[in-house]
Specification:
Layout lengths: L3 H10 L4 H8 L3 H10 L3 H10 L6 H4 L6
């Protein structure tokens, strides 16, 4: 499960908006918003890991659901 807050925090840290990150990934802003809810593909995750200089992607892209 995607930790949206952690991903958004990294995007803000590096100056990316949803629209600018979508452009970097080659997808529409609407698709990016949908993927924030449903999850990203491995190619998109790899690109964001590189763009956002994420050293440990597990807590962001593979977070466990806390109930």
């Amino acid at each position: 499960m995607l930790n949206r807050n952690a991903l958004k925090a990294e995007m803000v840290r590096y100056g990316y908006t949803n629209a600018s990150m979508a452009k970097k990934l080659g997808i529409s802003p609407r698709t990016f918003s949908t993927r924030l809810k449903d999850g990203f593909g491995s190619d998109e995750m790899d690109a964001m890991i590189e763009l956002l200089h994420i050293e440990n992607p597990t807590p962001i892209f593979f977070a466990q659901l806390v109930t």
